[in-house]
Design goal:
This protein is of the alpha/beta class. It is built from eleven helices and 17 strands. The strands form three sheets. Strands 1, 2, 8, 9, 10, 11 and 17 form a seven-stranded mixed beta sheet that branches. It has a seven-stranded mixed beta sheet with strand order 6-5-13-14-15-12-16, with helices on both faces. Strands 3-7-4 form a three-stranded antiparallel beta sheet. The termini are far apart. The structure holds flavin-adenine dinucleotide (FAD).
Length: 391
């Protein structure tokens, strides 16, 4: 009988594993893949995400410091850089492998290449089944990400307007050509898919290029991706990977009597620009804080997990959803505002940098809207048309 079984070794599972090990919980982590494994992702690892770790990320993992963003809508674009880093770009197979190694060094048991296929809750324990084995623990943290379906033993399946579909490709390129196109900024294209966006992120020797949108609106993600690639001069044959992403800020059931959902499994993703690593890490940690108080001190219950998550970042996710709904409902007006004055993007960048909340940003923005609507858009015919990737 373990104290805790963690299912999934992504950022949520490994953050939970590290804290559980440090707190002395007898812990087993089960991961279905052998790391390092591929994970479709833009790889923007925000300052918010880094602030949750109790260790530094080694230099070899940081591919590029990101100071700002270049945001496009139709023929308009705006670019703003901060004087400080808001994120670093990473390759997920490398980052996740490192995060899991930091969990392992605390002494927890990790079984790779083992898929949990179901679980059963009893009054005193939970049984987790793989193809051949049965493991028992007092509690389970389910950190299986967005794609797994064990979470549906706890809550109903998301509806089509509660999750997004993304397509992503890693496109190899020489660093000097990447630098010439974009240096320490990420590029976002709104208005290229209904209720979603496209991105071009400059990594070490490759671009991460992708699109994502609400599943209920994006009927042909592969077609939309190919169109987006061609528009930017990427005309080769690329491996296109699809992945789901929950819409964050929606109330979901995230606990049962002995099982806690964390990370993407719980739906903890920023709906405005798709950041999920930070909330995965923090929710994994909160789950362990609550479970260890129950096991070690006999204090509290799993419902504390839901309320701690709500009070730490639930409001941020809710307001990210409000902002994304405003944008998708009135895209023309929204981007007129976004591209009319640099301070609109400049102030927004404080959100991923963890210096401002979404609520704070919306409160800041609303009284200024009438003024911005009178401004002329700052730039036209941005790199989307002018330079494409004529590398
Ligand atoms: C295309 C795309 C781009 C994104 N870009 C960004 C970005 O730039 N920045 C950002 O912050 N977020 C981004 N996200 C979101 C981010 O990837 C997720 O929020 C984050 O990975 C969630 O972490 P997690 O640990 O909950 O799940 P995952 O990272 O999905 O990890 C889940 C792990 O569980 C394992 N697993 C699943 N089922 C089982 C099972 N039954 N048994 C055992 N193991 C299992 C999986 O193999 C996996 O290793 C992006 C997402 C997508 C799809």
């Amino acid at each position: 009988m373990y104290d805790l079984i963690i299912i999934g070794g992504g950022p949520a599972g490994s953050a939970a594993g590290r804290l559980a090990g440090n707190k002395g919980l007898d812990t087993l982590l089960i991961e279905k893949e052998i790391f390092p494994r591929y994970k479709p992702c833009g790889g923007a690892f925000s300052e918010r995400a880094m602030s949750y770790l109790d260790f530094d990320i080694p230099q070899y993992i940081h591919e590029r410091n990101i100071l700002g963003a270049r945001v496009h809508f139709r023929d308009n674009f705006i670019e703003k850089l901060k004087e400080y880093r808001i994120a670093t770009l990473v390759t997920r197979s490398v980052l996740d492998d490192y995060l899991l190694s930091k969990a392992k060094e605390t002494g927890i048991e990790i079984k790779m290449g083992k898929k949990a296929i179901s679980f059963r809750e009893d009054r005193e324990y939970v049984e987790v089944y793989t193809n051949r084995e049965v493991y028992k623990a007092r509690f389970v943290i389910l950190a299986e990400g967005a794609q797994g379906n064990l979470k549906n033993q706890i809550r109903k399946k998301d509806r089509k307007n509660e999750y997004g579909i993304c397509m992503v490709a890693e496109i190899e390129e020489e660093n000097k050509k990447i630098d010439r196109y974009i240096y320490n900024s990420i590029e976002i294209y709104f208005g290229i898919v209904n209720r979603g966006y496209g991105w071009i992120f400059p990594h070490e020797k490759y671009f991460s290029v992708g699109i994502g949108g609400l599943a209920s609106y994006i009927t042909n993600p592969r077609g939309a991706m190919i169109k987006f690639l061609n528009l930017h001069g990427f005309t080769g044959k690329y491996k296109l990977k699809g992945h789901l992403l929950p819409v964050g800020g929606i109330e979901r059931k995230i606990i049962s009597s002995r099982v806690v959902l964390s990370g993407d499994a719980a739906g903890f993703v920023d709906s405005f620009y798709g950041e999920g690593i930070a909330y995965a890490i923090r929710s994994g940690q909160i789950a362990v804080e609550v479970i260890s108080r129950i096991l070690n001190n006999g204090v509290g219950s799993l419902s504390d997990y839901a309320s701690f998550c709500r009070s730490e970042f639930g409001e941020n996710l809710k307001y990210s959803l409000i902002l994304s709904r405003m944008m998708h409902r009135f895209p023309g007006i929204f981007f007129k505002i976004f591209t009319s004055c640099e301070e609109v993007l400049d102030t927004y960048l404080e959100v991923p940098a963890s210096k401002r909340t979404y609520r704070g940003y919306i409160k800041w923005l609303i009284p200024r809207v009438p003024k911005y609507l009178l401004f002329k858009s700052l730039r036209q015919n941005g790199p989307s048309k002018a330079s494409k990737l004529s590398l």
